[in-house]
Amino acid sequence: MSQDGRRPTSIRVQLSRALRGKKGREALGLYAKLEKKEPKEPRWPHRRGDLLRRQGKGPEAIECYERAVVAYAELGFVARAAAMAKVILLIDPSQTGALEKVTGEKARELHRAKGPPPLPKRDRGMRRSSLRMDAVPLKPAADQDDDEVRFLDIDIEVELEEPVEIRVSLTDLETRRPASPKAEEIEVDVDSDDLVFLDLDEEPERVAPERLAQLPSMPLFAEVPEEVLRAMLADAELVVLDAGDALMKEGDASDALFVMVEGQVEVKFPQQRGGDPILLGEGDLVGESCLLDDVRRRADVIATSPAQALRIPKTTLDALVGKHEELGDVILDLLGRRLIANMLQTSPVFASFDPSNRADLAALFELRRAAEGLVLVEANKRSDGLYCTLLGDLELFVGNETRRVGPGIIFGQRTLISQQPSRLGVRCASDVLLLRLPAQRFATLAAMYPTVLEYLSNLAGGDHGDPTG
User: Fold this and answer.
1) Can you say whether the dihedral through the CA atoms of 70, 71, 77, 81 is positive or negative?
2) How far is CA 209 from CA 65, 108, 219, 296, in A?
3) Do residues 314 and 255 make contact, with C-beta atoms less than 8 angstroms apart?
4) What is the largest distance, in Å, between two alpha-carbon atoms of the chain?
5) Higher pLDDT, 348 or 69
């Protein structure tokens, strides 16, 4: 205690005052004290490096960033560690050893301890040529009647091809909303009774490692060998956004996958009426549509705060999947979980269900693929299930009239309810990834959730030109 009887001012309070007073030299010293006091906390070398970089002291900044890379990786924050390594390369491209310090070991430990179990290894026989080949293809049933279009169910053809299990967790189904904007954050310092007011920039919100281990991007880094992780990160680009900047726009070429590092973005579908935007933050994947060929972005993704993301080119992912099949397993699992979660959050069929019920619903669906040109439903014939397209385009046809539609279309429920032929044909206008609820599971769904049956019944009684089929 000081001679005048007051507690000494905490280091964080001093740092806050130095930063607000733009006293750079003093702030550097205080960051050094905090790093010595909390050697496993990556924020202090990170922020000290940022300050040195703004002062034009590149070599000194690199030394701080290198310590931050190691500290982030040891806590399981692989994306942040990779982002730090990329900043080092921006300052000095010769510092290629920075990426060697990025490891997924802690991420694997956390993911297996807190998240879903490791992905099963599957014997696929011949190596696939594209990511989309992993989902079991729809195959017409040989014994279908003349008045129906029916495909083999997964449990029928399981001996021929192993089904893909998409394990949607409650974390996937949470809708994250932005925190109420605050000019300051209040924190009680552990060493004193001082109240510390830290700017959000000074004390960034960070997801706890245990929670981060359950977020969608973690398997991307946790379930692949180190050589695959480093190859992905070597080709990745760090994208820095200010609030209001677009990470991607509707119609852009879908040529990369993004992993959120910091901040938050909102996903808006310009053609979707009503509904809240989907909010994504640290640990989330953005731009999964790149995992199918020849598609374009369907949504605008806008930063709601300063944000960073790692951009991994599709060409890199395709090349790595050709060499390392386990990466294809991980990516398909991530793609399926995110797309199923999006459908369950945005479709009016499931809008009234809480996350636990949505997880039960997700388990009833199969993730399937359909080749371009395949007819899923024919006019004047019965459908064999409920379908929801996730990626790819469909062509709707009634007589000589046709209309092309994008993902998000639900069809097949009318003939399931009424047992009457469809008046609408549905054909794949491109390769399509879709969710399929087979007819035999429909009764289970209706028994568990009567409101779904009521909603689908209302659709079935509507206009026959309705694209829901």
Assistant:
1) negative
2) 20, 11, 14, 33
3) yes
4) 96
5) 69
Q: Cα 83–86–92 angle (5° rounding)? A: 150
* Cβ neighbour number for residue 464 with a 10 Å cutoff: 11
111 forms beta bridges with none
Of 238-252, 428-442, 446-460, least confident by mean pLDDT is 446-460
* Pick from 37, 27, 8: nearest CA to 198: 27
CA–CA distance, 200 with 208 (Å, rounded to integer): 17
With vertex at residue 328, the alpha carbon angle to CA 327 and CA 330, rounded to the nearest 5 degrees, is 65
Residues 149 and 377: beta-carbon distance below 8 Å: yes
Please classify residue 198 by burial: count the beta carbons closer than 10 Å to its beta carbon, then call 0-12 exposed, 13-18 middle and 19+ buried.
middle
**d(C-alpha 53, C-alpha 273), whole Å:** 45
Tokens of 242: 């200010």
Nearest partner of 114 among 204, 209, 183, judged by Cα:
209
Nearest CA among 285, 309, 289, 307 for reference residue 299: 289
CA distance 265 to 256: 16
Backbone φ and ψ for 452, nearest 5 degrees, come out as -65, -45
- Give the separation between CA 257 and CA 235, rounded to whole angstroms: 12
Q: What is the pLDDT of residues 238-248, one digit of tens each?
A: 999 999 999 99
Nearest CA to 173 among 286, 335, 342? 342
